[in-house]
Design goal:
- The chain is an alpha+beta fold.
- It has one domain.
- Helices cover 41% and strands 19% of the residues.
- A 4-stranded antiparallel β-sheet has the order 1-2-3-4, with helices on one face.
- A hairpin with a 4-residue loop joins strand 2 and strand 3.
Length: 115
């Protein structure tokens, strides 16, 4: 799998934000971490404001362009009103769109480099 640069990943996140501008649920607190080792370990952290939970998006290592979402474990149960659950659903939907967007961009990146 060809490596991504932190600049490429930052650009993709900015592009996603530009596309999601009309959606208030678009992840706003995005932190992209990067490990300069031989293994590409790009990690994006998004905080779900409604629940206070952090989710982690990362690309699978081993040649796959697929990105996955990991939900941070909770120590306590979370209670929410119907309105809060709807707000959370919008946030989670936006995270899903970000994950799909990153997978598509990674696939394009791989195809471009294979030419």
């Amino acid at each position: 799998m060809p490596r991504l640069t932190s600049e490429e990943l930052d650009g993709w996140v900015r592009e996603f934000h530009a596309l999601e501008q009309a959606h208030p649920s678009s992840p706003q607190a995005v932190d992209a971490s990067w490990d300069e080792s031989m293994i590409d370990t790009a990690l994006i952290v998004v905080r779900l404001e409604t629940s206070g939970t952090e989710v982690f998006l990362r690309r699978e290592i081993g040649g796959s362009p697929e990105w996955t979402v990991t939900f941070e474990a909770r120590e306590r149960d979370a209670r929410a009103t119907a309105d809060q659950v709807l707000a959370l659903a919008h946030e989670v939907g936006s995270v899903a769109r970000l994950c799909a967007f990153l997978t598509a961009k990674t696939t394009e990146h791989m195809e471009r480099l294979a030419r």
